[in-house]
Design brief:
Order of helices and strands: EEHEEEHHHEEHEEEEHH
Largest sheet: 5 strands, mixed
Radius of gyration: 22 Å
Mean pLDDT: 95
Structural class: alpha+beta
Shape: globular
Distance between the termini: 40 Å
Low-confidence stretches: none
Number of domains: 2
Strand content: 15-25%
Strand order of the largest sheet: 2-1-5-3-4
């Protein structure tokens, strides 16, 4: 097995190294640099939707601003994370996010940290910031492809195809990864509902303890996908561990 190829470069004057092909944002975060971000998660591919992770990269004497989550590290580059130009750009982006999602606690906190407490833009009041994390986790990790971006421009939103949630397995991955908690999941009795997609499914009851633990539709989907025995999920994970 060949050794990993490392590249060396500077972030705010500090010499660092990282594996070639790595994206700049996670490398900077690992080294302790504080770069705000909303649409990044290590489990899914980079997307660059929120733009908050802007940095300035100097290469061959030329400097440009770019999203650090989508920029692969290179030898010799110099990265600046907190210039006047970056701060101005971030404040503008946060004003737009505040106008869209003024009720979201995370947006309020990140904006306040950047010195933004109000916005000059018209309020929309939709807690979905179109970061795409839910769509990517559903497509890339769960592989259910139950939600996607629909429409364009100011009508763009995340929704099930044709607004029919029949492909949603109610696994809750989109709820977990959402940075603004706008999707939400409710469990009542033996039913689980993914609120934003209006998807309600019956849950499997454990044959040992009798408690519902996951949607039957989700479990059958996993059984078929992984070629597991049909009775694989008759007992909940807790009871399985207890023997």
């Amino acid at each position: 097995m060949s050794e990993k190829e490392l590249v060396r470069f500077k972030i705010d004057g500090l010499e660092v190294e990282a594996e070639r092909g790595s994206m700049l944002l996670p490398v900077a975060l690992d080294y302790g640099f504080e770069i705000p971000h909303l649409c990044h998660h290590e489990a899914v591919s980079p997307y660059g939707a929120c733009r908050l992770c802007l940095v300035e990269v100097t290469k061959n004497g030329r400097t440009r601003m770019t999203t650090s989550c989508t920029y692969p590290v290179e030898d010799v580059i110099e990265v600046s994370t907190d210039t006047d130009q970056i701060r101005r750009a971030r404040r503008l982006l946060l004003e737009l996010l505040l106008a869209r999602s003024s009720r979201a606690e995370l947006i309020q906190r990140v904006a306040k940290e950047a010195g933004v407490t109000e916005t000059r833009f018209k309020a929309v009041d939709d807690d979905c910031i179109l970061c795409g994390l839910c769509e990517r986790v559903c497509r890339e990790v769960v592989e259910a492809n139950a939600i996607s971006f629909v429409n364009r421009g100011d009508r763009k939103e995340v929704a099930p195809p044709f607004w029919d949630p029949m492909a949603c397995i109610a696994c809750g991955a989109c709820v977990y990864i959402c940075p603004t908690d706008c999707i939400k999941m409710e469990e009542k009795g033996d039913e689980r509902t993914i609120v934003r997609w209006k998807r309600t499914l019956k849950m499997q009851k454990c044959k040992s303890c009798g408690k519902p633990f996951a949607p039957l539709f989700q479990l059958n989907w996993i059984i078929d996908k992984a070629s597991l025995p049909k009775d694989f999920y008759d007992v909940c994970p807790v009871c399985k561990q207890m023997g």
